[in-house]
Structures are given as structure tokens and as C-alpha cells.
Amino acid sequence: MTRIQATPVQLREAREARSVYRAGLVTPTSGVAHGLVQANLIAVPADWAYDVLLYAQRNPQACPVLEVLDAGATESLLAPGSDLRFDIPQYRVWRDGVLVGEPTDASAAWQEHPDLVSFLIGCSFTFEAGLVDAGIEIRHQTLGRNVPMYRTNRACAPAGRLSGELVVSMRPIPGDRVAEAVQISGRYPAVHGAPVHIGDPAGLGIEDIQAPEFGDAPEIRAGDVPVFWACGVTPQAAIMASKPPFALTHAPGYMFVTDVPDANYLV
Amino acid sequence: MTRIQATPVQLREAREARSVYRAGLVTPTSGVAHGLVQANLIAVPADWAYDVLLYAQRNPQACPVLEVLDAGATESLLAPGSDLRFDIPQYRVWRDGVLVGEPTDASAAWQEHPDLVSFLIGCSFTFEAGLVDAGIEIRHQTLGRNVPMYRTNRACAPAGRLSGELVVSMRPIPGDRVAEAVQISGRYPAVHGAPVHIGDPAGLGIEDIQAPEFGDAPEIRAGDVPVFWACGVTPQAAIMASKPPFALTHAPGYMFVTDVPDANYLV
Prior knowledge:
EC number (chains A, B): 4.2.1.-
Family (chains A, B): Belongs to the D-glutamate cyclase family.
Distance between the termini of chain A: 12 Å
CATH topology of the largest domain in chain A: PSTPO5379-like
Number of domains of chain A: 2
Strand content of chain A: 25-35%
CATH class of the largest domain in chain A: Alpha Beta
Organism (chains A, B): Leucobacter albus
Number of strands of chain A: 11
Number of helices of chain A: 7
Oligomer: homodimer
CATH architecture of the largest domain in chain A: 3-Layer(aba) Sandwich
Structural class of chain A: alpha+beta
InterPro entries (chains A, B): D-Glu_cyclase, Putative_hydro-lyase, UPF0317
Pfam families (chains A, B): D-Glu_cyclase
């Protein structure tokens, strides 16, 4: 998959980002290492790995799997030298479907579950780079905020012991750029692809666009249309709904920054 | 995934094909139900399902998963009313990596392993329809033969207990149509996508292009270039190399015909 290599400048930025996150910096990663893939994390004990992989296979737009690490492994092929225990700015620890902690260092999870299987899942920040390059404003980046994410009323296809609703991210886009936003994101089918819904949030069962379940409230300006994409936080909704005994994820918006250029996922 | 529906004529053809295969007709399926997806089958006891799904995830060009059935299930969502025990023209039964039978009815496999998990994997016949529509001759169809398939010297990424080499299918294409063949097949990234190799078979470690491991020998004419695509028979090579106690597959070229139009996999 990785045919197109990162530039030295990109690589330096990605490695420095992972390094400062490892040292403890907590910040959303949207816009970091422009042009390199960022990934969602979900890690579960080996006993649950098939359910997660099958859930991803049955819901590929929300859960495009970029890499599955072997049980217990912590170095991603997408970022040689990385360590998933430390290199994400903030994590979430889930027990029986309940969020019980948001550590900045997740090494305790691997101590507790040496057979933890980590899944790296594509992130909409990949096509954001394409939108930015086309001169389409990514409002939450401009404002220095986290992207707003919402649980919807759309059920994902269940798999084994996992079920849950689709989670979406939303970007307000001026009406004259929406078509381009669709076309550009559609060229990344391996990373959420085209939007799942455009316009009225009620169509997804979202009651209050200003109250996202994850991330920060949006700023929607006159002439903007809300555009909704499938989101890699969807597995976290499945965790809440399905209550596996243990799971570790990234904190929404605080992603794993890889060394792999987005262009590898362009079609 | 199935937004674009089959036409009544296509549906009738697909259902009739499955029905005559169920009744015992043994014939390669290339060209059957033009415009509808055909699929490779690999089915393993539940204990091996994670290895197969992970192998597919790590080798997506060769093993694009279209559907994973629940353990023991035999009706595919891609073809309501179908039954995987009977609806493929010919099967292969593998024990400890050795081909031990080629039945036309596979119901004994589910009797022996009630927890059998079936994987349906994309097939190059999908983009063949696109090539035919563009006026590019599919030689093996013209000749009424099976497509030639070869084991290569390219290792797939291993997963759990599974490892093996990439298997490719080959179509001789006139030099002035090769670029189009690349572009057309490239629009189906979920179904093998663009070729993995064009030209000299030695580049894939293929010694004798006239002696394919699977399918029939090709007819290569003056001006033709051999064009190689990743092939859904790749899991069978992994079975041979990795020797799971039991596996059931289709016989190469004798596919599962679905009700789903190819166009659903176009990007």
C-alpha cells in the first residue's frame, strides 16, 4: 500500500508530533503533518478481535481498517519506531461499555492485557488535507477546535457480539463548494469516502447540531451546508452499546499520526 | 453497498445459473449473468476464521472481502435465496493443505463442520464485464475456456497461521488496449483493481505461461501483452502452504454468481 513515500519535511513533522505526544502534550491532531494519514485506534483483548474485524468488514465506510497489529504488538507498520502505548495524545479506557479514564499513556492497558489486538482505522483528516488543498475551508481547523462528531440513528451491521449506531463527523461547507467536497472525499474510498448525508441533521436523527457527542461545537455560517461523513469513532459507539469487558481507544480527535502519505489511499 | 439494483433480466439469469449449478451442471462461470458480481469462496471452521479475515485484510488486492457469513450460515446477502452448499458449480475440499475432492455439492462440509464460516471474495470477472463493455476482447471467454491462473513468487503478508504466495489471473490484451484495461480495472479497487504486473511473466516468477496452475492454457496472439491481476484464488495457495485441517473453496473459475451489479463496486 505504501508506494508513495513521505517527504523529509513531512516525516520530521510526524515524528516530532508523536514524540511530543509521547512526552505528554495533549492536543487535537487535525492539521498536523499535512498530507500524512492519521488513524483511529481501537484495541481489544484477542478474544474480541474477530468481532471487531468483522464489524469493520461489515461497516467499511465507517471502519476502514488500515492495519491490524498482531496480539500484543505496539509498533505500527505505518510509522516505524512508533509505539501505540504512548504516541497518541490522549486515550480512552472502556470497561463494560463505560468510559473509565482518559490517560495520556496507555501502557497499563498492555500490562493488564498482554494479548491486546490493535486496529488502526482510517480517519477523515485524510480527505481534509485534500479539501484544504482545494481551498475549501475546514472550519474547525481555522478555529483551532476539534471536529464535531455525532451519534446517529443509523444502525451499523452487527457482527458477533458487536452492534451500534453510525457516528459521523460534520463540516460546514459553503453551498458552492459542497459538490467539490463530495468529489474530493469520494476519491478516498478507503478512508470514509464521500459523505453519508448532506443538509438537515434531522435526517440522521441529530437533534441539536450545536451539541455534538464528541469534539467541539461547530460554527455554521450563512450559506454553509452541514456535510456529514462516516467517522472512525463508530467503534466507540459499538463499545458503548455492546459492552465488551475491556477496550482501549484514542480520544476522539486525538489521533495516531502515521508516516504514510494520504495519496496512497487515492483512487 | 447494494444501491444499484440488478435488472429483471440479469436477476433471472443469475437465479437460473445458480439453479442449474444446484442441479449439478459443472461449467466455468466467466461471462455468466453479465454485469453481476461473481465471488470466490473460502470456508473454514470458526477456529480459523480470524486468520482468514486478517489474511484478507492484509492482502486486500488479492482478497477483497465482499461478505463474511455468520458461522454455519449458508445464505448469502448478495443473493437472497441462495445456498452456498449447492449453488457453486464445483467445489474443492482441502485437508491439511491437500486437495482431497472436487464435489459439486458441498453439504457434507457443513455436516462435518456446523460452525463453518464462509468468506465471499471479489473476482476479476467483475472488471471483465467492464473490459467487454469497452470492446476489449476477453480471450478465454471468446474461446469458451477458463481463465489461466498462476502461483507467483510474490509473498503475501502473513496473518496468524496463514501465509502463502500471490496468485494472479492473466489476460492477453492487445498493446493498444492495455492502458484502457488498466484504467477500467483500476476503477474497481474493491475487486482486485488495476493489474499487479504487465509483460514478462518471469517478473512474477512464472516460468511457463502455457502451464497455468489453475484454469486453462491461454492463447496469446501477435501484439498481445500478458496482463496479470491479483486473483481471488490466492487463499487457496495459502491453504496449500499453511495446511489448515479443513477448508472448502470453489474450484478456480467456477464461481458463486450473485444478484449484485458490478457497478456497486465502481469508484
